[in-house]
Design a protein that fits this description.
This protein is α/β, with parallel strands linked by helices. It folds into two domains: 123 residues, no CATH class; 98 residues, no CATH class. Helices cover 42% and strands 12% of the residues. It has ten helices and seven strands. Helix 2 runs antiparallel to helix 4, helix 2 packs across helix 8 and helix 4 packs across helix 8. The longest helix has 27 residues. It starts with a helix and ends in a 10-residue tail after the last strand. The structure holds zinc ion (ZN) (2 copies).
Length: 292
């Protein structure tokens, strides 16, 4: 990452802190992590996917790249990325220092192999953290937190690589065309009214129709499905009365400032709290929005 890019993400975080002082604790906790993640993901990966094997017809039919090939490659430097992120976690969340030091030490000694986390069982769930918790006495929640941060870095590199290699493609689903996760936040451009969904698992953004729910595809009645907080017209949450999911949604007039959608999502954590208290669930679980 160039110095310019590093200071851009810092400026974005500073602006988020100014605009959302009520959420400054959580923004500050995640700031060093996000800066480190963007820095690590900026370097192109040395492992290359075979992007010629990506089938655009399958994409059109709703099969994300992650279901066409493995996105995590055997040569990915997961150990180095994990150790680097462990430092950033301690910086933002000093209360986790002891637990993270234990995990980092085991990673350094190859007793914890981050690659094991990405080998999923037949039902798609990672079993590795359970094994680490049992055999190595580490906190399973802290271990999976660190591994999901690692995953984002590698998947972001892959998402950039894939979109650069295959160019434009048709995609009509509410889940991510790259990694298959549901969105963490949406952005609606006030001019033209296009809705873009953002995936926090890999950083991909894609356009999605405004007339149906991204999660269950139920058609929506215009104007009935957004929840606003008083005095804040830019922030809302889309809610679906069929699947009972919500999606925090931001309105953007013009393109004044550079934005980082993950910083925006963390800055709007009060919307998550509000919607979860009303009995709705997020479309995807992120490291910051699992509140109960
Ligand atoms: Zn994704
Ligand atoms: Zn729905």
């Amino acid at each position: 990452m160039t110095q310019e890019q590093t200071s851009e993400i810092k400026n974005i975080i500073d602006r988020a802190l100014e605009q959302n002082p009520e959420n400054k604790e959580i923004i500050k906790a995640f700031a060093p992590i996000i800066i480190r993640q963007r820095h690590l993901a900026e370097k192109p990966s040395e492992q290359k996917l075979d992007c010629s094997a990506i089938d655009k017809q399958k994409l059109k039919a709703g099969v994300p790249v992650s279901r066409q090939m493995n996105l995590i490659l055997p040569g990915d430097p997961l150990k180095e990325i994990a150790l680097s992120l462990a430092e950033a976690v301690k910086e933002g969340m000093p209360q986790l220092t002891e637990n993270i030091d234990l995990i980092a030490g085991l990673i350094r000694d190859d007793k914890i192999k981050p690659a094991d986390y990405f080998k999923s069982s037949p039902d798609g769930e990672s079993m590795a953290t359970d094994v680490w918790a049992k055999d190595l006495k580490v906190s399973p929640s802290n271990a999976s937190f660190l591994m999901s941060l690692v995953s984002r870095v590698v998947l972001e590199q892959r998402a950039k690589e894939i979109t650069a290699a295959i160019g434009a493609f048709e995609w009509e689903k509410g889940y991510c065309p790259i990694c298959g996760e549901f969105p963490s936040i949406a952005l609606i451009e006030e001019e033209g009214g296009k809705r873009f969904l953002h995936c926090s698992s890999c950083g991909q953004d894609w356009r999605f129709t405004r007339v149906s729910c991204p999660y269950c595809e139920k058609e929506t009645r215009q104007g009935m499905e957004y929840f606003y907080v008083e005095n804040k017209k830019q922030e809302s949450a889309f809610v679906c009365d069929q699947c009972k999911k919500y999606l925090v949604t931001l309105y953007r007039a013009g393109n004044v400032f550079a934005r980082d959608m993950d910083v925006s999502a963390i800055s709007l954590i009060h919307m998550d709290l509000l919607m979860q208290n009303k009995g709705y669930e997020p479309m995807t679980a992120c490291t910051w929005n699992v509140l109960s």
